[in-house]
């Protein structure tokens, strides 16, 4: 499910051009794939949707993206706390969600 080859799968390499749009869409694809994998056995449909919606909000530069990411990260922390999701998986999904946000146009424009 979670491999060290995720960056390679997204087509990223040290020599690759770091375009914020490509980074965001690569991070988004990785997150959605992992959420879909977990939705089969661990996540309820509403929980998976909340995480996906947060990623969508980041990718599409929604005004409430920060609040959605916070809600999704809180959900992941609770799932880990209650033993429904391993600590590693919860941290990895949180990191992936933040990567979508960190690579979004909203943040890229802010630092340009």
Summarize the structure in short.
This protein is an all-alpha fold and 112 residues long.
CATH C-level label: Mainly Alpha
**Mind summarizing the main beta sheet?**
none
| Rg over alpha carbons | 14 Å
Stretches where pLDDT falls below 50 for ≥5 residues? 3-15
**Strand element count:** 0
Terminal Cα separation, in Å?
A: 35 Å
Structural class: mainly alpha
Q: How do the helices and strands follow one another from N- to C-terminus?
A: HHHHHH
Number of helices: 6
Q: How many domains, in number, for the residues?
A: 1
Q: How would you explain this protein's 3D organization?
A:
The protein starts with 5 loop residues before the first helix and ends with a helix. Mean pLDDT is 81; it is low at 3-15. The radius of gyration is 14 Å and the shape is globular. With 112 residues, it is mostly helical. Helix 2 packs antiparallel against helix 3 (45-59) and helix 4 (65-81) runs antiparallel to helix 5 (87-102). It is built from six helices and no strands. It has helices at residues 6-9, 20-39, 45-59, 65-81, 87-102, 105-111.
Quickly list its features:
112 residues, 71% helix, de novo design (two linked rop proteins)
């Amino acid at each position: 499910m979670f491999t060290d080859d995720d960056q390679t799968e997204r087509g990223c390499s040290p020599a690759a051009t770091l375009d914020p749009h490509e980074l965001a869409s690569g991070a988004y694809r990785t997150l959605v794939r992992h959420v879909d994998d977990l939705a089969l056995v661990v996540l309820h449909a509403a929980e998976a949707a909340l995480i996906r919606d947060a990623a969508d909000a980041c990718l599409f530069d929604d005004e409430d993206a920060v609040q959605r990411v916070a809600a999704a990260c809180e959900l992941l922390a609770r799932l880990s706390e209650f033993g429904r999701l391993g600590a590693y998986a919860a941290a990895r999904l949180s990191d992936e969600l933040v990567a979508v946000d960190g690579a979004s146009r909203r943040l890229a424009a802010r630092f340009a």
